[in-house]
Amino acid sequence: MVEKRKPIPVDEAVRAVMNVGGNEAKKETIPLANSYGRVLAEDLVADHDVPSFDRSPYDGFAIRAEDSAGANRNRPVHFRVIGEIGAGTVFPREVNAGEAVRIMTGAQIPNGCDAVVMLELVDEDSEEDISIKRAFSSGDNISFQGEDTEKGAKLVPKGTLVDPGVVALLATFGYVEVPVAIRPRVGIIATGSELLDVHEPLEPGKIRNSNAYMMAAQVERVGGEPVLLGKLPDDLNACVEAVSNALQEVDVLITTGGASVGDYDYVPDIIERLGGNPLFNKVAMRPGSVTTVAEINGQLFFGLSGNPSACFVGFELFVRPILCRSLFFDKPHLKRTKATLGKDYPKPNPFTRFVRATLEEDEGRFVAKPGGLDKSGSVTSIAGADVLIALPGGSRGYEAGMGVDIFLLEDHKGSEWPWDNIVASYKS
Ligand SMILES: Nc1nc2c(c(=O)[nH]1)N[C@H]1C(S)=C(S)[C@@H](COP(=O)(O)OP(=O)(O)OC[C@H]3O[C@@H](n4cnc5c(N)ncnc54)[C@H](O)[C@@H]3O)O[C@H]1N2
Ligand code: MOO
Ligand SMILES: [Mg+2]
């Protein structure tokens, strides 16, 4: 008799995985030029003002504003030009009454000056003599020291993805080496005697192994380091040995395939043979209901479905938050928000459905449009998906135009705990 499994709700399953200890975040330092896409392992605090000196935001003339008092169209005020500076050069002496310094954008405001007149507003009567036809106030056209940020300000918290703007800040504050989270090593093993390598021609009854490469990309999207450990035929001894060896090499291990109740579905036996503690082997979701997770000698082992869409969803819901947590992200789960459903789902389903979809804009609203065949075995519905639409299980279907919860796949800010009030109803 086939084993009868008891499905648990998605929120319970995610909680069970997150409750497993280990995989705590660790840091290393890497060169700034390699830091894009990594995750900061320390807060980035300004150790000096930015800008660190008052500077000119324009090409023009630095003056003492008080000297321009009363200037107008009919009564221009003249200044004597006593020198010229470009960015990077500091004017060497105090500027006195009636004097001006020709100054370029980015140059430090000379001592004594407190305003800049743009070149376009100046009549250059000669190289040494300029005149202006309006008065300026102290502070006009000056980028003040500390106006961008002040020394001591916490600019970017630990656990932030290093984007181009963060790279700019790291450079600004002199980070030759950047403290980042060590990328968790994620082992990936594909199982199934039907699997061909990508370079092999199709044969009757066989398919190419797409899940392993898909998951490697999913690992990379989150910031982990995928370790592709090949594919195995449906042979229990070979699988047990491979899983056991792999666990020595990686932080977290994923297999795809063999998670169901079929004759060659060995995930339950692998866990048993290695003395693992199964957390669950059925989740009230579709696709991905057969997702099986176990703790084997303190390490997390994810037995994801062989069906591509189920494998994809299982990764995003259960593996992703573990990797995010070990990368210092303080909100490790998929970001949840709302959109309009772009297609009818008239058939009720007892399990919560996670539909792969793209987010499109339609007259100012975000519409989540499901792509490809909505079946667990579909590989085409994953490409281009930037959201998962969550359709709670229950007795009714859903219609296009309804508001639905969606989970953003390309986002890196995440949610603290997005699972309340989504999986309220399910049946076993
Ligand atoms: N009697 C039952 N049969 C099935 C049940 C069930 O509850 N009772 N559950 C179904 C559900 S739901 C799913 S999902 C699948 C899960 O299957 P497995 O995890 O055991 O995976 P396999 O049997 O090895 O393969 C399923 C399917 O996926 C293809 N596959 C496998 N590996 C890959 C890969 N690396 N790349 C691309 N495609 C892959 C494989 O060829 C199969 O077509 O079980 C249902 N059955
Ligand atoms: O585990 Mo399955 O993906 O629900 O079709
Ligand atoms: Mg199977």
TrEMBL record:
Residues 187-325 form the MoaB/Mog domain. Belongs to the MoeA family. Catalyzes the insertion of molybdate into adenylated molybdopterin with the concomitant release of AMP. One of its GO terms (molecular function) is molybdopterin molybdotransferase activity. Keywords: Magnesium, Metal-binding, Molybdenum, Molybdenum cofactor biosynthesis, Transferase. Pathway: Cofactor biosynthesis; molybdopterin biosynthesis. Coiled coil: none annotated. Its EC number is 2.10.1.1. SMART domains: MoCF_biosynth. GO terms for cellular component: cytosol. It holds the Pfam family MoCF_biosynth. This is Molybdopterin molybdenumtransferase. GO terms for biological process: Mo-molybdopterin cofactor biosynthetic process. It catalyses: adenylyl-molybdopterin + molybdate = Mo-molybdopterin + AMP + H(+). It comes from the Bacteria. Its cofactor is Mg(2+). InterPro entries: MoaB/Mog-like_dom_sf, MoaB/Mog_dom, MoeA-like, MoeA_C_domain_IV, MoeA_C_domain_IV_sf, MoeA_linker/N, MoeA_linker/N_sf. SUPFAM superfamilies: MoeA C-terminal domain-like (SSF63867), MoeA N-terminal region -like (SSF63882), Molybdenum cofactor biosynthesis proteins (SSF53218).
